[in-house]
Write a structure and sequence with these properties.
Order of helices and strands: HHHH
Number of strands: 0
Number of domains: 1
Helix content: over 70%
Amino acid sequence: MISVREKDLGNAEFKEGYLNALAGLLVSYRSGDERDFLNKAETDAKSRNSYKKQFRDFVKDGVQSQFDIGYFMAWSDLMQYRVDTKKQS
């Protein structure tokens, strides 16, 4: 299995933003700090879909750098993962 760090995500700046977001998400999750978005976000299906859409909209509507696009795509992908895994349970 290929790790995310080994995957070809295209642009190096995009990949750096994507990996930076994943690292931050992991730190946030491990901390359990309820002030962090990841730990305080609503977890119902409607909210997860809304968050995913908002992160995708950041990418479409004004995020300029490849780093930022990668960063918000990681968040969007996480929300999509949460939507997909909640449907299965």
